[in-house]
Design brief:
Helix content of chain A is 67%, strand content 0%. Chain A has 137 residues and is mainly α. Chain B is globular, with a radius of gyration of 19 Å.
Chain lengths: 137, 184
């Protein structure tokens, strides 16, 4: 089962999201009110380590476990796509208090309201897929 | 053991999240959670309605395993790695502002909104439903969520990801400071 390692990585991710309180509705509210370093510290430090890490992987052409080169996929530039899409996402993030990973983590932790959030997130993705050609990208 | 049972400080969590990203890169995948939403739609038959969902979802099965793991991780963290009845220690100012809106500020998330009983309220269904809808719609429109853009994309210095994160904050600030007082 080659997928077991992804299951284990997911378990680790879920534990980290919960224990860091990045999955807590309260922490998201605190972040959008700029009243603690907590969330900014988490994301800032992850990125602060991530930037040199990715640069080193590119410089040394590091291979993954299977021997294939690690590749990064640049995203095509667009203003409306990221600005409008990002803003809609942000509205939902603050209202539900969770982004997609933490929605699932919270459901696992037993907060059943997040099952409703997840179901409607799927409906939102479905609606985007149907309307895609009509939206500015 | 006590330091594991206590909430983890941000400087530990930030390092661990960077580690998860590295582990996924080492596994030959890029760290991005919300692609799962598209995959789940395809599995539910959305490919009959839009070309966006017409792809071989099995190529994304690794990410679904990651998703299942995340739910299991949440279960383990709350039941075995946390002290009972703990409250997230947000700043006093946030406590005061949330209390003014009528929120309790104990526990991990407000029970008044996310417990089973909370589903008896139509208003709550609207909040959870509209919130979830915008997360799912926006994540796919913007081509990624917090993990894909704020962590992976910015680590790769992608201008698109930086713009997406600016959007996340425009939306989040608008909701928190303009719409919350109207909703609650």
């Amino acid at each position: 089962m080659k997928n077991i390692k992804f299951l284990l990585a997911g378990v680790l991710f879920g534990i980290i999201m919960f224990k860091s309180e990045a999955a807590s509705w309260y922490r998201i509210q605190e972040m959008f009110r700029f009243q603690s370093i907590h969330m900014f510290g988490i994301i800032g430090l992850a990125v602060g380590i991530g930037v040199p890490m990715v640069a080193l992987i590119k410089k040394f052409k590091t291979k993954d476990f299977s021997g294939a080169p690690i590749v990064f996929h640049p995203k095509a530039w667009s203003i409306p796509r990221y600005l409008i899409g990002g803003t809609i996402f942000g509205l939902g993030w603050a209202l539900s208090g969770a982004c997609p990973g933490p929605i699932v983590v919270n459901f696992g932790a037993g907060f059943v309201g997040y099952l409703v959030v997840l179901a409607f997130a799927l409906l939102g993705t479905f609606t985007y897929g149907v309307l895609r050609d009509k939206l500015p990208h | 053991m006590d330091f594991i049972l206590q909430p983890w400080p941000w400087y530990v969590s930030g390092v661990l999240i960077a580690m998860i990203m590295f582990v996924m890169l080492f596994f030959g995948k890029s760290f991005g959670f919300s692609n799962n939403l598209r995959t789940l739609c395809t599995i539910c038959g959305a490919d009959k309605y839009a070309p966006f969902f017409q792809f071989d979802w099995k190529t994304q099965s690794w990410n679904l395993f990651f998703l299942i793991g995340a739910a299991v991780g949440g279960f383990i963290a709350t039941n075995y790695l946390s002290l009972p009845d703990y409250t997230v220690a947000i700043s006093e100012q946030t406590v005061a502002e949330l209390a003014a809106l009528g929120f309790e500020t104990d526990g991990y998330v407000p029970e008044s909104q996310f417990s089973l009983d909370a589903l008896m309220s139509v208003k709550n269904w609207l909040i959870l439903g509209i919130g979830g809808f915008m997360v799912g719609f926006g994540a796919r429109y913007a081509g990624g969520c917090t993990s894909g853009h704020a962590i992976s994309g910015i680590s790769d210095l992608q201008p698109a990801s930086l713009l997406a994160v600016v959007g996340f904050f425009i939306g989040g600030l608008l909701m928190t400071h303009v719409l919350f007082p109207l909703i609650y």
